[in-house]
Automatic annotation (TrEMBL):
<dbReference type="Pfam" id="PF00153">
    <property type="entry name" value="Mito_carr"/>
</dbReference>
<keyword id="KW-0677">Repeat</keyword>
<keyword id="KW-1133">Transmembrane helix</keyword>
<keyword id="KW-0813">Transport</keyword>
<dbReference type="InterPro" id="IPR002067">
    <property type="entry name" value="MCP"/>
</dbReference>
<dbReference type="InterPro" id="IPR050567">
    <property type="entry name" value="Mitochondrial_Carrier"/>
</dbReference>
<dbReference type="GO" id="GO:0022857">
    <property type="term" value="F:transmembrane transporter activity"/>
</dbReference>
<comment type="similarity">
    <text>Belongs to the mitochondrial carrier (TC 2.A.29) family.</text>
</comment>
<feature type="repeat" description="Solcar">
    <location>
        <begin position="107"/>
        <end position="196"/>
    </location>
</feature>
<keyword id="KW-0496">Mitochondrion</keyword>
<feature type="repeat" description="Solcar">
    <location>
        <begin position="12"/>
        <end position="98"/>
    </location>
</feature>
<dbReference type="InterPro" id="IPR023395">
    <property type="entry name" value="MCP_dom_sf"/>
</dbReference>
<protein>
    <submittedName>
        <fullName>Mitochondrial carrier</fullName>
    </submittedName>
</protein>
<keyword id="KW-0812">Transmembrane</keyword>
<dbReference type="GO" id="GO:0031966">
    <property type="term" value="C:mitochondrial membrane"/>
</dbReference>
<dbReference type="InterPro" id="IPR018108">
    <property type="entry name" value="MCP_transmembrane"/>
</dbReference>
<feature type="repeat" description="Solcar">
    <location>
        <begin position="214"/>
        <end position="303"/>
    </location>
</feature>
Length: 305
């Protein structure tokens, strides 16, 4: 059995955390956005029946809308997601340090989980409007002769004119509940690295960079585990969030008015399985995306350490 190495917290400035998280977010967006488009199409009940499987969804979107269709709506998250990722990483370390009596103490996995959950709730203030615009874009299926506006600007102006500032925060409760999953996300990453065998010459107390004390295989595995853990724990709330944000609150007889009505209505109409619809493409996406995310983050930290 391998020895569990309790690595001391690295002394990284908040600015470096933010920079590394932002660069990692850009890399992750390039890799994962097409999978996210497929996930949203599956979760939207109005168009989900068009696709038989993940591969069929990719094929259909590319055939009907070309590669551009997989990246539709990327402008809004590309403007917000990378710095948001920086905020998540920097606020995660802030909330973790706030729980420690001494900055050099080793946090428990429970403390890491709590810090990650807190950073997720904080990030939902930015995530909610960005994903609302993205989901409106991704849910649009262009047909012959369609004059539906597909630009981010059109969607933003439409929401502002009809619903005001409040309209951009439709679905914030479900988004915050989903983003609590950052607790499991960071705990899985740190836990995997703690149990991963290290080189005999590594000094966990003296390393400022995880890249210097772990192999590339360890970072990739830990990143993949983080992605899976973060989604499996809270995926049902992502389904709920998508359904709320893809419909208008004022629509007559809308069963997706709020978080609770969406849960009840979805369960009654489609059973328990509906809350895991789109999970397959999400997990397929989560593994490579979070491998890239954490490896890029650690690479940037290593370069500036």
């Amino acid at each position: 059995m391998s020895e569990v190495v309790e690595a001391k917290p690295r002394e990284i400035s908040p600015a470096l955390d933010f920079l590394a998280g932002t660069v990692a977010g850009m890399a992750a967006m390039a890799v994962g956005y097409p999978f996210d488009t497929v996930k949203v199409r599956f979760q939207n009940p109005q168009i989900a029946t068009r696709y038989r499987s993940t591969l069929h969804a990719f094929y259909t979107i590319v055939r009907e809308e070309r590669i551009r269709g997989l990246y539709r709506g990327i402008a809004a998250p590309l403007a917000g997601a990378p710095p948001l990722n920086g905020l998540v990483f920097s606020s995660y370390r802030f909330f973790m340090r706030a729980q420690l009596d001494n900055e050099k103490d080793t946090p428990t996995l429970a403390q890491i989980n709590l810090a990650g959950a807190a950073s997720g709730v904080l990030s939902s203030l930015i995530t909610t409007p960005a994903e609302l615009v993205k989901i409106h874009q991704q849910s649009l299926v262009r047909t012959a002769g369609s004059n539906i506006p597909l630009r981010d600007r059109d969607v933003i102006l439409h929401i502002w004119r009809h619903h005001g500032l409040r309209g951009f925060y439709r679905g914030i409760t479900a988004t915050a509940l989903r983003d609590v999953g950052y607790g499991a996300y960071f705990a899985a990453y740190e836990g995997t690295l703690r149990y991963w065998p290290r080189p005999h010459n590594a000094d966990p107390a003296g390393e400022a960079s995880t890249l210097a004390s772990h192999s590339l295989a360890a970072l990739l595995t830990a990143g993949g585990m983080a992605g899976v853990a973060g989604w499996v724990v809270t995926f049902p709330f992502d389904v709920v969030k998508t359904r709320i944000q893809s419909t208008a609150a004022a629509a007559p007889n809308n069963p997706y008015r709020n978080t609770w009505s969406t849960i009840v209505s979805s369960y009654r109409a489609e059973g328990l399985g509906v809350f895991f619809r789109g999970l397959a493409p999400t997990l397929v996406r989560a593994i490579p995306v979070n491998m890239v995310t954490f490896t890029t983050f650690e690479l940037v930290v290593h370069m500036f350490s």
